[in-house]
């Protein structure tokens, strides 16, 4: 799981709240992390591999949104590998990990492993948060026709730059001036926790707003193609809206336990003695959410692929093909439909209106198809049931 408590545990003089959760059934906790991360890793890779039986339709051009979705999955995969490696070492070499608690020692490898593995996990998941924020920004810009593949360079600079900067800054403040003196007070820990949870809170606050504005812009685009809002276009808009909802639902499910757990542990840290009887329920709640974090945090990778693409099936095609952007067939067919002029136009204006309608429809369909990289099976059901698809 990904928690700033992983870094604070590397301090020999760690606080009592961190000691409480990290010493609670460590074998069980590491086993839970390994199991959850392994299942998520295998299912995520299975979801991303091409499947047999997919229709070999024409592939649309790549988009920044599809690249961002792939990068989010890669961050989850690498973060899951870090969890598996870290938990495996903890289970396989308990004596090696026990040396972290020794203040006066000459062996620096236990602390180096502790800090390095914790930073790897935090950095990858933090980068995933920034990429998710970039996806929400890119979705809105695509609908406004202000984004493209060129913007992916800016997203890379922002994502990796901010992720590395915040991670290094938080670690430097936590371990200043050395590992032996870190966690002597909250002035060391608070900046570290802020830099860790800042991108998470940004996604929770900003992404719903951006998604809502994107859905409204999509509805306006669909209405503007013919001046009416048909049933087929309404269903397409609903599919995009549901996709954004699933993304945020997965994010809230996987990370709300972290916020609850951190709130409880900070409250316990402020108490003179966390072992007091009146605090028993709070300690139990903190330990329960700690285990829940070990289950849900690694599962984000697989759950995100379900939100992005839906269930893609078990039949893997070893011959690699680029993933198709769904609704492309419907978008292409609607171009032809919308190219015809409105019956109310006079004959002298037919040629000009056809040219304008075709251009606007192509731009609209391109923006919609870029956003609509979701469940292929649901797309095929949608497009095959539409009169546009049948006529095409």
TrEMBL record:
SUPFAM superfamilies: Family A G protein-coupled receptor-like. It comes from Pteruthius melanotis. GO terms for molecular function: dopamine binding; L-DOPA binding; L-DOPA receptor activity; L-tyrosine binding. Coiled coil: none annotated. This is G-protein coupled receptor 143. Pfam families: Ocular_alb. It is a multi-pass membrane protein. Receptor for tyrosine, L-DOPA and dopamine. After binding to L-DOPA, stimulates Ca(2+) influx into the cytoplasm, increases secretion of the neurotrophic factor SERPINF1 and relocalizes beta arrestin at the plasma membrane; this ligand-dependent signaling occurs through a G(q)-mediated pathway in melanocytic cells. Its activity is mediated by G proteins which activate the phosphoinositide signaling pathway. Also plays a role as an intracellular G protein-coupled receptor involved in melanosome biogenesis, organization and transport. Keywords: Cell membrane, G-protein coupled receptor, Glycoprotein, Lysosome, Membrane, Receptor, Transducer, Transmembrane, Transmembrane helix. The chain crosses the membrane at residues 28-49, 69-89, 109-133, 153-178, 190-211, 244-267, 287-311. Its main location: membrane. The gene is Gpr143. Signal peptide: none annotated. One of its GO terms (biological process) is melanosome organization. Belongs to the G-protein coupled receptor OA family. Interacts with heterotrimeric G(i) proteins. Interacts with ARRB1 and ARRB2. Interacts with MLANA. Gene3D superfamilies: Rhodopsin 7-helix transmembrane proteins. It is found in: Apical cell membrane; Lysosome membrane; Melanosome membrane. GO terms for cellular component: apical plasma membrane; lysosomal membrane; melanosome membrane.
